[in-house]
Design brief:
This protein has 140 residues and is α/β, with parallel strands linked by helices. It has a single domain, classed as HUPs (Rossmann fold). 41% of the residues lie in helices and 23% in strands. It is built from 6 helices and 5 strands; from the N terminus they run βαβααβαβααβ. The chain has a 5-stranded parallel beta sheet with strand order 3-2-1-4-5, sandwiched between helices. β1, α1 and β2 form a beta-alpha-beta unit. α4 runs parallel beside α6. 33% of the residues are buried.
C-alpha cells in the first residue's frame, strides 16, 4: 500500500467553491491523501490598495468555513492556516516548514484573479518543484 500523499491546498476567495470541493473529492479517488489548507491573507478591492495586511480577517473566515466544509465531507484535512498576504511567499513558507507531495491552487477566473495575473500556479510549481493542479473556482 502506498503512503498517504500530502497535498497543500491554496485558496482564498474560492475556498468554499464547489469547483475546489469537486477537485479535492477527485483527488481522494486517486489514492490516499491528507490535505493541508493554506489561505493567504491576500486583501482585495479597496482594502488591497489601502492596507496590504487588511485581508487577515477575511482569510480567517474562509479558513474556518472551508475547514468545516471539508471535514463535513469526510475529507482528511490535517490542518488549515492563514498565510502571508503574498500567496507565493505563503506557499514557500509552508513548503519550507513541511513536506508536501503536490499542490492544488484555486483561483478566481482569469478576468478577475490577481493570482493568475502574476501566474501563481506556474510560479508555485517553479518555486517548490511540486506538481501543481490549478482549479478555477467561483467567488463565495
Amino acid at each position: 500500500m502506498s503512503a498517504e500523499a500530502r497535498v497543500l491546498v491554496v485558496a482564498n476567495r474560492t475556498a468554499e467553491s464547489p469547483e475546489l470541493l469537486d477537485a479535492l473529492r477527485t483527488r481522494t479517488m486517486q489514492g490516499p491523501c491528507e490535505f493541508m489548507l493554506l489561505v493567504p491573507s491576500t486583501p482585495h478591492g479597496i482594502t488591497w490598495a489601502a492596507d496590504m495586511h487588511g485581508g487577515g480577517e477575511e482569510a480567517e473566515e474562509h479558513r474556518a468555513a472551508f475547514l468545516q466544509e471539508l471535514r463535513d465531507e469526510g475529507l482528511n484535512v490535517s490542518d488549515a492556516k492563514v498565510g502571508d498576504p503574498d500567496p507565493l511567499a505563503a506557499i514557500q513558507d509552508e513548503c519550507n516548514f513541511s513536506d508536501y507531495d503536490e499542490l492544488i491552487v484555486s483561483t478566481l477566473p482569469l478576468r478577475i484573479s490577481k493570482w493568475l495575473k502574476v501566474d501563481l500556479p506556474r510560479k508555485a510549481q517553479a518555486a517548490t518543484g511540486l506538481p501543481v493542479k490549478h482549479v478555477v473556482g467561483s467567488s463565495t
